[in-house]
Amino acid sequence: MKEESEKPVDGSRRSMLTGSAAFLVGGVAGCASNALTAAAPTVAPAPSLPWKWTKLDPMEAGTRAYQQYLKNKG
To answer: What is the C-alpha to C-alpha distance for residues 65 and 71, in angstroms, rounded to an integer?
Structure first.
């Protein structure tokens, strides 16, 4: 007599792969249809900065950052 744990499993790898492929195709088709029908989002202009933009010297900024790193011990 066979125990319950030895019962054959309904389905096979092939049916599982077929079902997975169908699920994947359905998901891709749904995403593609949403992308095609979605309206282009409107972009608001960026607000102006509350301060004047200044150009930084990269070597000076690096030197100051390194000095602060050493001063604060990492």
So the answer is: 10
Q: Which helix (H) or strand (E) segment is 60 a member of?
A: helix 58-71
In the chain (74 residues long), the average pLDDT of successive 10-residue segments reads 57 82 80 67 84 92 96 88
At position 40, the amino acid (one-letter code) is A
Domains identified in the chain, total number: 1
Please report whether residue 4 resides in a domain: no
Kindly report the pTM of this predicted structure.
Answer: 0.32
> What is the extent of the structural domain holding 16?
12-38
